[in-house]
Structures
1.
Amino acid sequence: MTKSNDFFDQVFQVVRLIPKGRVTSYGVIAKYLGGSARVVGYAMNASHTSKPKVHAQRVLNRNGQLTGKHHFETPFLMQELLEQDGVKVKDDQVINFEKIFWDPFIELKID
DNA sequence: GTTTTGACGTAGC
DNA sequence: CGCTACGCCAAAA
């Protein structure tokens, strides 16, 4: 039992809360959980071991780019999954990224 | 145990 | 406007 497991789990939970057709970024989640963006990406790497499967494709970098596609089974899978969610992807970048951006500080805002 | 690296982000030059 | 540097923290070597 380690603290890192707890942080990973928190990342997983937040990612799972992302609605269909929405995306978010590592940095925002990191900031929301009080960690670093790198660790969030690291958590995503471990996400495939988590059940149910974490929608890692909905988590992108600050630029809205599919930076982590290379970590999927196939580099195309990440884009396809996003498109299946109704998210348009062009040149490894999400279209209307700001429009579909899902911010935990707003959506999960604690009054 | 130390060193390197990594699905990031911001600041500086 | 592109590259370097640094901070962040954890996993792998």
2.
Amino acid sequence: MSIDPFDPAGWDDDGPAVPAPSAPAAQPFYLDGLNPEQRAAVEATDGPVLVLAGAGTGKTRVLTTRIAHLLHQNKAWPGQILAVTFTNKAAREMQQRVAALIGGVAEGMSWLGTFHSIAARILRRHAELVGLQPNFTILDADDQIRLMKQILAAEGMDEKRFPARSLATLIDRWKNRALTPDRLGSEDAHSFADGKGKQLYAAYQERLKTLNAADFGDLLLHVITIFQNHADVLEDWQRRFKYILVDEYQDTNVAQYLWLRLLARKWRNLCCVGDDDQSIYGWRGAEVGNILRFEQDFPGATVIRLERNYRSTGHILAAASGLIAANEGRLGKTLWTEDEMGEKVRVVGYWDGEEEARATADLIEGMRGRGRRLSEMAILVRAGHQTRAFEERFVATGLPYRVIGGPRFYERQEIRDAMAYFRVVMQPDDDLAFERIVNVPKRGLGDTTVQQLHVMARARGISLHHAASLIVETDELKPKARATLRDLIGNFARWRAAARDLPHTELAETVLDESGYTAMWQADKSAEAPGRLDNLKELVDAMAGFESLSAFLDHVALVMEIERGDADQDMVTLMTLHGAKGLEFPVVFLPGWEEGLFPSQRSLDENGLSGLEEERRLAYVGLTRARETAIVSHAANRRIYNQWQSAIPSRFIDELPRDHVQIEAQPGLWGGSAPEKPFGTALREDTFGTRGLSPGFQRAAARTIDLPVERMVATDNTGDDFVTGERVFHQKFGHGRITRIDGNKLDITFDKAGAKKVIAAFVTKA
DNA sequence: CGTTTTTGCCTTTTT
DNA sequence: GGCAAAAACG
């Protein structure tokens, strides 16, 4: 069976606002094989719909089938469907699956993408309404920080006391909540740097405007501002998007929520799919409240629960369900499967991280020997750096592996440099880019010269590039610097002119050549240089797939990764739990389930109970990635910053329902410790034996003396609080003085043994 | 002005 | 133990 051909004219963005009358078919093929709930979710086309889709219940299938259904029923043209996802990965997958379902018609789905990429497209069309030009630059996190530093410096603030990072985080948070500087509440306005928060935010926005740039948060926020202030523009977009679909609704923040609500107000055909139990982006401003409140926000909404799991076997599903049940404030779902019970979740304890890596590699090899493919196995970690121990082991044993989400292509120095050149060509006022490359390669335009440019730019309120073009006509610079700068400005002018008729890939090559950038790496004798040249070539190759240089710049800013063709090789996958959302593997390893690591101490400290619950959802996401085998592990000792720290098993291990878990103690290691809690007693003081103290650690110990005492509270085994500076006694190390308290870990300078890191429970007050 | 050495901070997760 | 920024050096 095939779909009726659609009129290509309707695929265009500017297709008819009202689709042709519908001609329903009897039983379209794409509905085959859907369960009743899935089918209901597909067929409930009109009005607000919330699909609560548990892990592995066919969420993406529902979304893609729904799109096929809307098109097949002639409810809308492809260009009238807005489908937003949270990640590029999800967008790509949906695009592919829609195409697989309905063929070429899917190419007309031009409004399928991430929140940010779609917002950027809308913003380009109305940039002038918020004081930007249509060719504005999208700044990434790195640019953002650098800009923030300049602002803090300009305000004469101490970078040590008020780090640019913190301000950036704060402003991001405001933007996630759709707060422009003028909308900040008085509490927020004073929350940074002695009440200067609001002022700094305003200064930052002002600066962005002169740079003709927008950061990630602005993409959404500016669109909201435009929608709120220009009814006609809003009306236009509302009319266009007859049907709106949202993936991972639980991850939306306030700004995204407002954005959706504005767009959906006319037709009210908003279908949100999500799972409150998989909300793991709270730290980035996601509001679980959005999904919990859906029915109030959109009265008359249809709510459909998908609870039949098609992914995992019984024990795994039960273990995950049991774990997540410990969270409060859930919408509640009861996942079930017709699959067999299968294997229990295995919980293994190891002596240290190294053994964990070694044993995991052995398990992987064993399974491979029994016919499993490596690509069927994944190791999911809490934090990116945890992959390292495994990588080292895999390299040593020659086990093929791939790390997803490691250092990214666009973050490499040479790529950022090249991009900076392109940015200045497209957008001369992009000071951040200009500053990055004025002296790369070295051309004798150092700090002194750049400072002069800054002075002039600030005095006249113009960009560095503009200032440079003026200053070369004066005598303010030394003749040499002036000539070099004039050359550079001249080059940019020429490249800009060439951009009009030269294909953009050729332009890119010209720029990299004539600027001397390629030559710089060719002359470089270091080991990385050839790789960098390869990367530059790859960058230019990647550009070929885009219509124009500006389209490419947008892509890089928004997608930030380059398609790699190594997907077909048989390798073990290593990635973070966050990165694994939406994926599944027959075999999943979940290492590092230890208190402090997972749940992450920082998350607990900063967000208390809600932080813990988010960590628990992360654990739930991890478990539910597994189809047949899930192996949780924890190590009693781990080396962090080159010192040994001991840890107790994660509370999440205790929360796994006993009936669905198989605890495997390491034979011989512990002389037969109790299998229910293999390492509850593993807190042994000799794990802190840091004989040769590294310089770094000595420095660390030395500089902690004058730390503030407040909120640095740890508790010993009797429940007493410690304070820095207090005298304590340790069984092995003797008497000493506390220099620093971090959670339950103490830095102590012992009278005899020197500086050590010790867990509070091992010392008593002297 | 550019290179080498020392220091600080670090490890949550990402559009 | 590693990386980026600051500081010290040539």
